[in-house]
Amino acid sequence: MDVIVIGGGIAGVATAYQLRAAGHRVCVVERHATVAQGATYGHSGIVLPTPLDVWFGPTFLRNGRQSSGGVICKTGFTGQARAFVKRLATLHGSEAFEARYALLRPLIESAQSVLEDAEGRFQLEYEQREGLLYLVRGSDEWSLTQPALELLRRFETPHHVLTPHECVAAEHTIPADPPFAGAVRFDQGRVANCPLFVKQLKQVLDTLGGVQFQTGREVSAVRIESQRAAVELAPRPDDASRTREVEVISADAVVVAAGAQTVNLLAPLGIKLPVYPLRMHTLNSPVAHEECVPHSTLIDAARRIAITRMNHRLRISGGAVLQHAKQLDEPLPESLTEEALALLGEASRDWAPGAARISAALAWEGMKLLSADGLPLVGSVGNPRLYVNAAHGPAGWALALGSARLIAQQISNTRPDLPAETIEALWPGRS
Ligand SMILES: Cc1cc2nc3c(=O)[nH]c(=O)nc-3n(C[C@H](O)[C@H](O)[C@H](O)COP(=O)(O)OP(=O)(O)OC[C@H]3O[C@@H](n4cnc5c(N)ncnc54)[C@H](O)[C@@H]3O)c2cc1C
Description:
The structure is a single chain. By secondary structure, the protein is an alpha/beta fold. The chain is about 30% helix and about 25% strand. It has ten helices and 18 strands. The chain has helices at about 10-20, 80-90, 95-120, 140-155, 165-170, 195-210, 260-265, 335-350, 400-410, 420-425; strands at about 1-5, 25-30, 70-75, 130-135, 160, 180-190, 210-215, 220-225, 230-235, 245-250, 255, 275-285, 295-300, 305-310, 315-325, 360-370, 375-380, 385-390. The longest helix is centred in the first third of the chain and has 29 residues, at about 95-120. The radius of gyration is 21 Å and the shape is globular. The protein starts with a strand and ends in a 5-residue tail after the last helix. Flavin-adenine dinucleotide (FAD) binds near residues 32 and 38. Flavin-adenine dinucleotide binds near residues 12 and 397. Keywords: Oxidoreductase.
């Protein structure tokens, strides 16, 4: 079949990779001049989510606007926003959290196997390294972390629970004062460079053939007809032709993997997705004192802020702001940007004092879609020729690889290797 993939982030490029492997011809349309320029660019490096990373559960968005819940919540007072936050709150209980994670788990395993396969097959080197250290501030947060620890035991994920003393002994850059409650260390937890991985995967596809990349082209509309699917391309900004006829590419199916823009592309087709935009921030800072830089990637567990080394800089990521859905394309008010960046600076000073030169840091922000049940949107929606691979949340770079495999299996009409209940839970048409 001929398949158009909209979006050249990790989700789009991974989908193209899987579709090609399944024997389809693929055209990826990306509005930027190259791939990996959206949320994929700003990742903090954590490859696969543990139960401590997922964006649902006991510690997530617990206290509304308070940063202890991981998110600055500014959704306004619409009924829709209230319902969204309320749905996330139903996953605070440990049973609901465990049930949801159990649905996600097969996707994580699938993503891991796709990653290992691609890595081995093409000898990909994308700055992989090991070592994740999750830090928990207070005793309240520590008790809310227990259901996640229970899941680590249940799924036999190798990890060490550390007292503050053990943690400071293992990572000497972490200060013992002010006191904190504890830590969880994953020696095999992987960190890597997501945009580098995506660019390498594109290079592999360029070499193998079968996937055409139309970069610098923006899809302005998706058309679904009974026999064909098509996308309309906006004129190139430098296109001086007077006719400015709409350029159309048609295919047998379209996969929308356009990150946060997925919502806007599907809305004219009457498809409303159960998601909200989440704006994430990063500070890319020069190293201030080399001896203060932690060996592991540090994660402030409840605040969901990661501090990771990327070559000669430190990247501090998090500061999520949940907004009203209509604000997707509007800039964030300055005061909220400052609040989000202040949280990042604070985390850096608390957990890695002296490591980052925050005053010289460059700020970046990226949009992600978050679903009310914390799971991505993957599968066919509205029409058998239309698919979505989006809303992987802020812990979703490698997850998109597993989702891509599912979409390729669905388009090829082959038996998916994920359990039926997981496929149902990922269905983009859910309310
Ligand atoms: C600050 C930050 C830190 C993060 N940290 C981590 C982490 O440590 N671990 C983790 O697993 N995940 C992390 N994430 C999440 C992860 O980066 C995302 O889940 C993943 O990159 C999403 O990829 P995507 O392809 O769906 O979206 P994107 O990367 O946003 O790609 C969508 C692409 O579609 C293109 N597009 C949109 N509309 C159109 C159109 N109309 N026509 C053509 N092209 C279009 C865009 O230009 C873009 O390139 C983080 C995200 C952020 C923002």
